[in-house]
Write a structure and sequence with these properties.
Blueprint (H helix, E strand, L loop, with lengths): L4 E6 L1 H6 L2 H10 L8 E5 L5 E7 L12 H4 L4 E4 L5 H14 L16 E2 L7 H19 L7 H14 L3 E6 L2 H4 L3 H7 L7 E7 L6 E6 L1 E5 L8 H4 L7 H15 L5 E11 L11 E3 L5 E3 L7 H14 L6 E6 L3 H7 L5 E4 L2 H13 L5 E2 L17 E2 L8 H10 L8 E5 L3 E2 L9 E2 L4 H10 L5
Parallel strand pairs: 1-3, 1-4, 4-5, 8-10, 8-13, 9-10, 12-16, 13-17, 14-15
Antiparallel strand pairs: 2-3, 6-7, 7-10, 11-12, 14-17, 18-19
Amino acid sequence: MSTPIPIYLVTAADLAQTHRDSQAWADVTGFKADPNTFCLVPGENGTLAKVLVGKPDPVNTWTLGNLATALPPQTYALADDWPPAQATQLWLGWQLGEYRFTAYKRPKTVARASLTPPPGADAAYVHHTVAATILVRNLINTPAGDMGPAALETAAQTLADAHAANLTVIRGDDLLHQGYPLIHAVGRASHQVPRLIDLTWGHDDHPKVTLVGKGVCFDTGGLDIKPAAGMKLMKKDMGGAAHVLGLAEMIMGLQLPVRLRVLIPTVENSIAGNAMRPLDVFPSRRGLTVEVGNTDAEGRLVLADALWEAVSEEPEPELLIDFATLTGAARVALGTELPACFCNHPTVAATLLDCGLQTDDPLWQLPLHQPYRPMLDSKVADLSNISDSSYGGAITAALFLQEFTKPTIPWVHIDVMAWNTRSLPGRPEGGEAMAMRAVFALIQQTVAAA
């Protein structure tokens, strides 16, 4: 086996001091050690002696994110010694950069560069995080015609089988009989019946964590139909469900000492004669009646029933987290690459934000601003699913969900894009796991460590 080609992370100062033998070549090729750039340094007899990579400050997960597909198909190794945490980040970023969604392309063999495991890196964490991220990306990238509620159920069953978890599913009119009227109302117009997927894993004596993910496999907007531009990416509207399945892969794969429950209300928001109509009123699992001010605000309806189920279980969860591609307002506020989070517990919120920085998986907290709550009042029902204002839409959506939680249970709501609109190192355009690693770190550092 040939010796791996060394990769050096360098600054401009390093070029002048440590790599003076490569300075002339760097000058000729225009390499200035800027982040996200690299320089191939030739050796003897047509070989590649080393690779110089611009070193950012600080070094992060995405430092090597482009190299798996940009370097010649050889075997490489990090040349310097790295602390275990940074070695893990660098290896993870390299592997996440290898991802391409090719399920619908003609098969072809492509030689790829490979990185030998850096000494000290957490191999188990990298393995399960990569597996979880690929799961999330693949689920979101799959066209809605092949990723409806039935296919999402199959994906959940496959994950449950892989980790000896239990899976139960309530389908169709059984949702009405068992008390999930909002999930049923949103999904009843589709030829694929709505369902509630319920995965459980772990020991009963471990602290309980419950995850809820919005599983709207396609969103036409219902009778308040979306325009073509707004509907084009709606295969990603089950991104919340994909996230909680990916997070479950990390939790179960890494054997966190928690009792895990994953609830996924999964539907298609379709148009048919039996579709819910604007200003229809439905009961909820909690007992509150909800007026449908807009049929395109369907995600919060299905989440409402699932959240109330989560907080009604005994014993109560010690942490409740939901992921949802919920509002365009969050994207207007923060852009597509920074998920918005809401939390009813300041300490949990602060820890989550810190975990996002630790894992290069940041979030930004928006307020559960209670003076906006009256905007959800309805004249004919207990509340409306939309605000009477065009402003603050991410906040009022979170306030709607808060009606189906309990103040005694720490709750985090994450409003996520779940899609890269541009390619970045380690993050190709398309479906993406956002805030998943941060939430895993939160669970690991708080609930699992208790």
